[in-house]
Fold:
Amino acid sequence: MIWNKSKECMSRDEMTDLQGKRLHKLVELVYHNVPFYREKMQALDLNPEDIQNIEDIKKLPFTTKQDLRDNYPIGLQAANQSEIVRVHASSGTTGNPTIVGYTRRDLEIWKECSARAFTAYGVTRDDVFSVGYGYGLFTGGLGAHYGVEYVGATVIPTSTGNTDKHLRLLRDLKITGIACTPSYALYLAEAMERNGMSREDISLRVGAFGAEPWTENMREEIEARLGLQAYNLYGLSEIIGPGVSYECQCKNGSHISEDHFYPEIIDPDTLESLPYGTTGELVFTTLTKTGMPLLRYRTKDLTSLINEPCECGRTNVRMTRIIGRSDDMLIIRGINVFPSQVESVILDMPEFEPRYMLVIDRINNLDTLQVQVEVRKDYFSDELGAMLQLRKRLADKLKSVLSISADVRLMEPNSIPRSEGKSVRVIDKRQLK
Amino acid sequence: MTIKQISVFLENKSGRLNEVARVLASNGINMRAFCIAETTDFGLMRLIVEEVDKAVQALRDAGFAVILTDVIAIHCQNQPGALSKILESLAQEQIFIEYMYAFAQSERADVIINPNDREKCLRLLQEKHPDIL
Ligand SMILES: [Zn+2]
Structure:
């Protein structure tokens, strides 16, 4: 099912045309209403008239999370306060939170995009849907809520926190759909098993998961334990909230509502635009928002774009699974290296424990990359030759993925700390010198 | 005869060998023979001990990666040429030694052999040098 065929299945020419027109209007709006953007454009000697089609977007300045912090609380707002009908805020782990004001029109757009997502998952008016995202300043709860309601399903605003009650409602109300974080879905599955319930006791058939990175393995596990089809739901409050992109039944990339949110992929180092299929930092321009519209907002999420028609019939560009954050990018011998690339190679080889440490150094003016891994118990050999062979296999794979060679170190069991945050996986000694 | 050899994976950093010895000693386990094979960043310590199961448990509890391998132990006279005779007859039968190590005490030498074909090696030794097994 497709919620809005005219927008989700547009031809590329029509879409490009629409995006160009909307971009022009957006630039006029921010130029006249947001001093921050006017000054940035003036510094680049740019007038709104210089932006006529979507290709012109490359002339425009970027917006970063730091810009939002520097203009706290509402410096980037384009609408008058009287036009703002809702405010959300994203939690800032450091510094100021990000305040996002929505006009009535913004909320309509958000509801529309969220409804597209839930329709793509197969949700209809016959579903009973539990929204297990937090309700409040966080956009997850209300964003999913309005989309599900717009589709016509029954919304149960369970929110987070009360797992026992959630389980009881799942069972007693024969809830068929759920939206929450993938880790909460796994937690629910555990709680269910603890309470002596099985997937036969509940009626879940569809799940919308997002707000944190997750993997294909987690999808399989959630689907098996809760007995549902699990789909990705992507969004970020700076742009609008959940519904910026969503998977369809094909589960092969998330379709972006690109008539509202124009995506670009850039090299986070050089800021150059990258072609379809290349991994880099995802950047969004909110083509239609009026509350706090953003030009070329750098999400720091690393992904790539697919511009091929999808089997579901939608033509909107898809983004692949997010593989990490651009903050984590390392430049080694001039090559961009993401720890997540190393991780994917290691996870693919059963001989190694799924943890690693990267040590980067500069020796005689040459960057060195050392990858420390632990060999799994079952794969140890008493023969040096076999161990060296294993090390070489990993080194060869890393070389083909990273394009630079890495010095692989085989480590003793449990000598590498279990990965909790990304930071502990990388030691960059170059910064210490 | 065939005996169990313990192989311990070690990073090449100071104190690790000592740690293996300390774990064994504190469990009252006597090392009869050992050798070390190493590369620049890791090594394998191969050990012959009296109480194999106890040693494996103690080392695993101490966090070491440990595996057991079947190897052949022979005894020969601690005198010039004794070993070379044995090795010669192995070579004639196309049996190659992956690695070996030995230790001698007074007139007897114990030699640990890991051949490419253990069964064949054992058969041959039984046939030609029954006194050494
Ligand atoms: Zn699709």
